Amino acid sequence: MREGSLTPPPPEVPERPEGLYRLPAWKPRHGALAFIFGPGVFVAIAGLTALLVDDPETADTEALSPVAVVIGTLVQNLWFLGVALLLARRVARPRFWHFGFARTALWPAVGWSALGLVSYYLLSATYSAIVRPDGEQDTLEVLGADQSTVALLVAGLMVIVVAPVFEEAFFRGFFYRALRGRLSIWWAAGINGALFGTIHFAFDGWDNLVFLAPLAILGVIFCLVYERTGSLYAPIAMHAFNNALAFSVGVDDGWIVALIAGPGMLLACVGVPRILSPPARPVAA
């Protein structure tokens, strides 16, 4: 009590316990705007280019050089993340942990990730047995993975390292989190997964639309694992593992790059958050 006063001094403000920091209040409208001005802009540009080209075949990504595809993919990923950061800034100054780059308990995360991948492979196998898709995705061919050793390495890094980090940061780190600002887990995950699958075919071509369902399911599973762990490193690791497996099977000698980049990404997803990231925050705002 202060001298000469009957009023006790205010208590010292305690430090806020870890894990109770409130996430920024992103809303579905922020996610919708991010999707429109991110992937939507690139889809519109691709469609407009196809309309303006006299020979439609030259508008196909197969007609582009692998170097152009790689550069275009990098620009696309940077654009997506840039749009997300600009919209996130309207609510609060963006922090890495806002997007899910946070530390979480290791073994529960490993368990949920393994369960998610096993569930996906079982559902995907069941779908393939019923639908019997006869198409073939040409993403790795478009990246020129089979043209040279350097091209193989660059394509592998794009597929196994770059794509998982940037796509998860946009689709799960911002877009899903924004949807969760108003929607339930299942609605947010369903919308996110459906658009995650759709956008891949908007860029890669619609000839193999039959593969949309498995990609949508994978997107939903990524959301659910992110929800359970509160950390984006779990879906990034799952994404990298799945892409490494696809790369090793889909490209001659691809297993060599996958054997290095795949485990490297898994180790990074375990080690980096324990060195640089704060503890996991709640997923819901």
Essential attributes:
285 residues, mainly alpha, 9 helices, 66% helix, globular
Please write out the topology:
Layout: H1 28-52, H2 66-89, H3 106-131, H4 139-142, H5 149-179, H6 185-204, H7 212-229, H8 233-250, H9 254-276
Structure commentary:
It is globular, with a radius of gyration of 21 Å. It has one domain. The chain starts with 27 loop residues before the first helix and ends in a 9-residue tail after the last helix. With 285 residues, the protein is mostly helical. It contains nine helices and no strands.
Brief summary of the model shown:
It is built from nine helices and no strands. It is mainly α.
The count of strands amounts to 0
Count every helix, treating DSSP H or I runs of 4 or more residues as helices. Answer: 9
Question: How many domains in all?
Answer: 1
Distance between the termini: 39 Å
Q: Give the helix/strand class.
A: mainly alpha
Oligomer: single chain
Gyration radius (Cα, Å) is 21 Å
Shape: globular
Report low-confidence residues grouped into runs of 5 or more.
13-19, 56-63
Average of the residue pLDDT scores: 84
Helix content: 55-70%
What is the ordering of alpha helices and beta strands? HHHHHHHHH
